[in-house]
Amino acid sequence: MSDPDGAVPSLEDEDGVLAAYRQHGAEVYRFALRGLGDPGAAQDVTQETFVKAWRNAARYDPETASLRVWLFGIARNTMIDHVRASRARPWHTSLVDPPGMESAAGSVEDHADTVLDGWLVEEGMRRLAPHHREALVQTHLLGRPYDEVAAELSIPVGTLRSRVFYAMRALRSAMDEMGVSL
Fold first, then answer.
1. pTM summary value
2. What is the CATH number for 133?
3. What does the pLDDT look like over 99-118, one tens digit per residue?
4. Does residue 132 share a domain with residue 122?
5. Are residues 115 and 160 in the same domain?
């Protein structure tokens, strides 16, 4: 897997972390800002994300997920840690805008999980054979009836059902390879 520009920076040295930050730092910051609703906290989470990526560079496997997906996973966990820490230190909430913290507490887990889950499913779908991917998209994502899709693809309904079955199995396997439990 590689990033859109084709280069996957090595996170084991300062130059690699800087290159990764240049490629993905703004996106990670916006992700944290949407989840937390606090620019200062979003900056802290972004910084901590890249520090954790640098410290755990040896754990990154480009065959499992793109650098972007890996960084967003770290950011999501860091955001959750940030919210939990703020709940554990109630005196700290009086130092920042309490309404912002309250909204962040509810939105981090819901919104962050939804965004990350979407990316992970998209990555898993990319790993499927084209005929399996098409069968899943048409029947599950678009909700079209099996007989209609089978007629459009000029295949028997039983063949379409088999493709969907094997596509789901392959998708589960791809998600397992990425370390995601369904």
1. 0.48
2. 1.10.10.10
3. 554 554 554 444 556 666 77
4. no
5. no
